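User: Teach me something about this protein's shape.
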Amino acid sequence: MAKLLIPIIIFHVGLVPIVVAAAATAPPPVIDDDRSALLTFLSNVSADPGGALADWGRSPEFCNWTGVMCGGPGRRRVTQLVLSGKGICGVISPALGRLAFVNVLDLSSNAFAGAIPPELSALSMLTQLSLTNNLLEGAIPAGLGLLQKLYFLDLSGNRLSGGIPETLFCNCSALQYLDLANNSLASDIPYADECRLPSLRYILLWSNDLSGAIPPALANSSMLEWIDFESNYLAGELPSQMFDRLPRLQYLYLSYNNLSSHGGNTDLGPFFRSLRNCTRMQELELAGNDLGGQLPLFVGELPRGLRQLHLEGNAISGSIPPNISGLVNLTYLNLSNNLLNGSIPPDMSRMRRLERLYLSNNLLSGEIPRSIGDIPHLGLVDLSSNRLAGAIPDTFSNLTQLRRLMLHHNQLSGAIPPSLGDCLNLEILDLSYNGLQGPIPAYVASLSSLKLYLNLSNNHLEGPLPLELSKMNMILALDLSANKLAGTIPSQLGSCVALEYLNFSVNALGGALPASVTALPFLQVLDVSRNVLSGPLPESLQVSTSLREANFSYNNFSGMVPDAGVLANLSVEAFRGNPNLCGHVPGIAICEPKRARRRRTLFPAVVGIVVAVSLLLCAVGCRSMVTARAKRSGRQSMRLVDVDDQAEREHPRISYRELSEATGGFVQACLIGAGSFGRVYEGTLRDGTRIAVKVLDPKGGGEVSGSFKRECEVLRQTRHKNLVRVITTCSTASFNALVLPLMPNGSLEDHLYPHGDNDGELGGGLDFGQIMGIVSDVAEGMAYLHHYAPVSVVHCDLKPSNVLLDEGMRAVISDFGIARLLACGVGEASRTSDESAPCNSITGLLQGSVGYIAPEYGLGGHPSTQGDVYSFGVMLLELITGKRPTDVIFHEGLTLHDWVRRHYPHDVAAIVAHAPWRERELQAAADVAVVELIELGLVCTQHSPALRPAMADVCHEITLLKEDLARHCGRRSLSTKDSLFSN
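Assistant: First, the predicted structure itself:
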């Protein structure tokens, strides 16, 4: 869908001459016919009271009605009817066919249902017709192809079926832009050899059910710039005598069809040879066709302006031609999932503009060329699942913009280069399933930039676990399993507060399992099996609310397995091979009676009491000293952020002591969230008010102080029902906290991924209606921040854990710790994204959380509203699919956008298969809404920021969709849509 934005802009900005002259042969008009036609149209639709059509019919001067422009004889005939995005439901009246002088008819982005009236074919003056993004169904009227002046036709994003009328290709000679994408059109493309569309520049038919061959007659349209036939069922050989006659062609998308190469699917040469005359070619996509044959030796002679080459998911064999390095302007090269063999050409380093390189899942062998380290803009390198051998080149350290390095499932040997620690922007490092030896370098272990995962499993690594691992405080997954690591597990790993997955299995680790590790607040999977760990299982396991899988088997653990928390739900397999463990789990020994143990445990208990009392006295003494010092220095202060007078009367002052009392001394049991800037605790004030206290980590120094100031500044200048309300703040020399209302329904994260047993309070799942409400709330809040707030704000960290739900399940956006103020003026005209704007609030920080970060941020891009749109799109796809974006990256090496795009539109059932809301009854209107939301999510997560819509437009689209669901306006169940969700 996003591919359409560029051509649409071109036509609406550069190709909209207003045709006002009447045809000389037209009969004398009757002025009242136009007013009558408009009123008949009005009688067939409905819109919001006071909305776009509120002024229709109130005045006889119909030329002043919303969306109506007049011209022609006496300037009293309708020449344009533009009602795009007005929230209109109903059917398109055939009476519009009586508007004899209309040249522009735009009813796009509404909720029109029913068929396209054949009477529109009578509009002989029509130059532009746009009905995109509605609920229209049925066939395309053949008469539209008889409109001799029509040059812009957009019917995309509907439910149109049947074949494409042949008249569009053989009679509509003025046509320049044809967009029928994202419908259910079938049959072949009826562009016959004798037909001519000499002015055609854009033809977009993607995401339909078209079959047959690509028509050779496309060569009759020598002005073509954009061909998009992606995601259809086109078959036959790739054309070899067509594209050499299309010198203006820039974008060619043929992915995900059933096309083949020449010579019985063995020869790609004729097709690639035909492209050499397309000197303006920028993007070529042939993915997912199962194309056979070898890459021709002259592949590097393709047009030098080529920026993206997608050949993944085929059956291409042979070696990578060395002269592919001639494509010096490529930014994206994907040859993954083929049958390529031989070595990686060292000369690929000549492609100096390359940003993403995918060569995974092939049969490549030899060593990784050191010259890859000379490609300065590489942000992603995926060479996984090949037969590469030798050492990892230390030249990877030259790649200052490298974010993701995936070399897993190869035959690499030698040590991990310590120089990888110089890749300060690295977020993913996967070297698993190789033959690497030696210790884990301290510099690599201390890569605090790793925000997704570090996987060094299934190698021959040895030595102790580096203490520097504790510096990876934002990493989500750490897998060091199946190595020869020894020593103890450092308790300092408790600093990795974001960890969700931890696997140390199949090593030689000994000593106790640190309680700080099992107490990690978000840990979901813990595997320490097949080591030599000893001692009791930590008591913190009993109170963990996040842990859902654990494996302690084949160690030397001892003592009783508590019948509480996650341990109560584990099978004997999780404890097998620990002869000194006992407890309730069937299959392990039953513990001795308490009387027999009492005498043996008396002394440790007494010691424990003495230690606890000592620690308590020490804590009381330290707290008294801190309070006295704060009073002497006079630094304890309280600043109101919210200007709400009622809140000020309710909570005139809140001290550190009150917050400490409210949270039980900020104990672990009150912890409800944690992140890079601190932790969030729930508490109760003396008057019974439930609050959430966001405490910023003092170890962050100036960075945390800046975060606190930024969040205060953002919340001081913004006010909206879908933004979190701050009660007050508490700030001392060493303590900064925001006091927020406690949201009884927790965060969106809690409902998407419930943590164990929460007494039924959270995690009950969301139905589709609730998802629509949350999506709408978040969109409204983000649109306010971007477009309507006194100061334009970029959130920079939109994700489910930062969306809170109040008692009515209304969503509010929280956590503005790394937000960016774009401008200080009020009003649209004063807003700017200039880096020199005086309200810039961050520099040098990674903008957001892994999986939700816009790709341009990973390549040094500045914070922008388009980055927020990307994060919103990821969250939207996450809600629809039920998949975390990090899960998709970790298991499949894809972004969530890529994963959904791989299945859409042919297999929507796979997209929603794991979505919890699918377990509830899905109405027919929701079926359509799901597809619309998938498409909106794909649009928002386009790689190029320029192709993403503005948040105000996103909010508007969601509002229309939500209203359509609420009113059940035009709701019809299509058999084609029903089949999308069937298995």
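Now, about its shape. The CA atoms of residues 196 and 220 lie 6 Å apart. Residues 263-340 form a domain with the Leucine-rich repeat, LRR (right-handed beta-alpha superhelix) fold (CATH 3.80.10.10). If you'd like, I can walk through any region in more detail.
User: That's plenty for now, thanks!
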